[in-house]
Design goal:
single chain, 318 residues, alpha/beta, 7-stranded mixed sheet
Length: 318
């Protein structure tokens, strides 16, 4: 018997990708409502309450409203918004968070899907902080570059507006440099860092793809720890993970301008991690992923598979 899944907000960027990943599966039945009824509280409430799992691809306030509409129904929730990522009673939707976390996702009634930027930050730093290789008060900065679909439908329309000419840009566009980015709370809470990192996000003239560079100052490393020890720790931690690949230490000998292409994992649910040392003792953690794959829709499908007791990789093999 197939599980009933309702995607609330499936016309948006993340929801559309999830819908496409699930539409052809025989083990899932997608609950649909007519386009004209999508904003009807009555129709939405009926669909939300009739599903085994509701996936919320909505702005934060609308996601909170959807949870209220579900009320006391047995529907389990997978929320792709920022609304519940650090909320009590919600399980953070990043299965690789620690070795026991899959079981928490699998049994949870409320799961908050991870944000795209935090995936590299959390998977890179969490094992290092927990293992004492990096100090909790370490000076950490993050330079992150995303495709414009990471900003949702409105930003996508802005970048694809021919009159603006943004796709003709030959450089990235930084943003939110003077404020606390909405991803910071989950980055701090689930990495274990004792303070906010200096987060520098930017958007590039490409639809999908992401490169996140986490710089750890030498002063933030435990005594005697360098890039080699950090690489060994991450390689051991993720050795058996189907969607996490840790590259060999350092920059490849044949590296060129395309080696660190942020689009390198597009169309997959994979994240590729690198550890690169610096002669001054600083260490760079780099992650490349699809901002709509492991950074959003793909990761949501991974969590959904766990919640439904299905193979974790189902629909994500490509």
């Amino acid at each position: 018997m197939s599980a009933r899944v309702f995607i609330d907000g499936h016309a948006g960027t993340t929801g559309l990708q999830i819908h496409q990943r699930l539409a052809g599966r025989s083990d899932i039945e997608l609950v649909e409502i007519e386009a004209a009824e999508r904003k009807s509280p009555t129709a939405r409430r009926a669909a939300l309450r009739s599903a085994d799992v509701a996936i919320l691809c909505l702005p934060d306030d609308a996601a909170r409203e959807a949870v209220e509409l579900i009320g006391d129904a047995p529907t389990r929730v997978l929320d792709a918004s920022t609304a519940h990522r650090t909320a009590e009673g919600w399980v953070f939707g990043l299965p690789e968070l620690d070795p026991e976390h899959r079981a928490r996702v699998a049994t949870a009634t409320r799961v908050a899907n991870t944000g795209c930027y935090p995936v590299t930050f959390i998977l890179g730093l969490r094992p290092l902080l927990a293992g004492g290789l990096v100090r909790a008060d370490a000076a950490v900065s993050v330079h992150a570059l995303s495709g414009y679909t990471g900003g949702g439908k409105a930003l996508t329309e802005r970048w694809e507006d021919r009159e603006r000419g943004l796709l003709e840009m030959v450089y990235e566009a930084p943003y939110a440099l003077d404020r606390r980015h909405k991803h910071i709370p989950e980055m701090v809470r689930y990495s274990g860092l004792g303070h906010d990192p200096h987060f520098l996000p930017s958007v590039g003239p490409f639809a999908c793809g992401m490169r996140v560079q986490v710089s750890i100052a030498a002063s933030g490393l435990a005594r005697g720890v360098g890039a080699e020890a950090i690489h060994e720790a991450l390689a051991a931690r993720y050795a058996d993970e189907p969607f996490v690949r840790v590259h060999p230490l350092g920059v490849p000998a044949d590296a060129d301008e395309s080696t660190f292409d942020p689009r390198g994992c597009n169309g997959t649910n994979r994240i590729e991690l690198r550890v690169i040392g610096n002669p001054s003792g600083h260490v760079l953690l780099m992650g490349i992923l699809d901002n709509l794959g492991k950074g959003a829709s793909g990761n949501a499908v991974q969590c959904l598979n766990l919640m439904l007791g299905l193979a974790e990789t189902a629909g994500l093999e490509a």
